Amino acid sequence: VKKIRTHHLREMKERGEPITMLTAYDMYTAAIFDEAGIEMLLVGDSASNNVFGNETSLPVTVDELLPLTRAVAKSAKRAMVVGDLPFGSYQASPEQGYLTAVRFMKEGGAHCVKLEGGEEMAPVITKCVQGGVPVIAHIGFTPQSEHTLGGYRVQGRGDAAERLKADARAVQAAGAFMVVMEMVPADIAREISEELAIPTIGIGAGNGCDGQVLVWTDAFGIRTGKMPRFVKQYADLHGVLLEGAKAYRDDVKARTFPGEEHQF
Ligand code: KIV
Ligand code: NA
């Protein structure tokens, strides 16, 4: 199998073939999504909520994300593996951002990194790209800034559309090879996608982007509870695992497991 490279993603945009991305935090999900033909696996800082049990993405650290990134990178045969720079690991300076990104590539085995921010992150993006790290920018709603943005809110509405477009242009000019847009109006996301040469990936950004990303624990229903509007649920893993665990419990309680065939 041929590995997905940045130029393949650019070619997909040019021929109008949508790009698929899912989060993955471990070896089995990475192997399954890779086998399914998903082009990009994001070891998101959403592992903070989905692996480590935190309420937001803010607490997760580089040292926590690196082993997950390494596990995903080891089992992805074709997919491009994206390391997600966590809160506080790149905003201080381009040097800090570059050194963190290098850790994700050297220690984590990531093929590229993603970082949150638009125009203000241009120097960090340029530093990384000049140092051999392909960068994906993440604009619109950026969860690491939930306390400055005032909670989970759609970004780029009304007058803020020009700001969002300026961010998209700035990250492309700084050298990002892709941009993720989260929770922005579909018409603005479509306009940006048409204008930019680099592919755009949407999450809550409508159907006019060059690709889509979902958090796997949302998409396949292992997580329960209130889902954001932009999530579509493709499986009910919570139900599957719950039934399995109950059947095992019942078997053991009834001494119907282990059976003859499981004994020595
Ligand atoms: O961490 C994450 O899962 C993300 C996606 C929502 C894009 O950044
Ligand atoms: Na993230």
UniProtKB/TrEMBL annotation:
HAMAP family: PanB
Main location: cytoplasm
Residues annotated for 3-methyl-2-oxobutanoate binding in this entry: 45-46, 84, 114
Protein residues bound to Mg(2+): 45, 84, 116
Subunit structure: Homodecamer; pentamer of dimers.
Gene from which this protein is expressed: panB
Name this protein carries in UniProt: 3-methyl-2-oxobutanoate hydroxymethyltransferase
UniProt-annotated catalytic positions: 182
